[in-house]
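Milestone M4 deliverable, item 7.
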Amino acid sequence: MIINIHGLDSSGANSKYEWMRRNAASHEIWSPDIDYRSSSPTEILDFLKSRVPEEKGDVYVVGSSMGGFFARILNQMYPDATAILINPALAPFIGLRAQRAQRGQIDCKGYIELAAMYAYSDDAAWRNLYVIAGDADELIDHKRVTMRMLPPDFDAIYWIKGGTHQMSVFSPEIDSILRKILRL
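Output delivered:
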């Protein structure tokens, strides 16, 4: 099963889902629409957890931007699941204040609390976790923020030269990385 978690102001029908639908059709794919503005972070996490299969098997969680925050938490809660974080907002509360002021409220405090409870604890399991980051991401400075959220020896990061935040058009490089991780 592949769980695709889109980013803020995106949808379950994002470009990552379209790629999966074309290239990973042998997997069950769940790509829900998430309204980050009207749901609390805890409600979103509970919703996502409700679809993680209880039986062992190949479970992949792909999270883009804000979805990367939740994919990281699910990876910690279900360490046998493989998480692929694409331009992840591992510290979404850093950039949310400006977003919150622009278009509706976002529960920054709730994201800080979830981060403290799950995503960044000292005993966090970092196995089965991959990061794909664009070096031209206009929203997240991955060298300043993302890399500080990862262990110093973390080496499962793929830098995409010229990759912007959306990464909506998959390059052959990203295609190859995803095929390798998803074993396609």
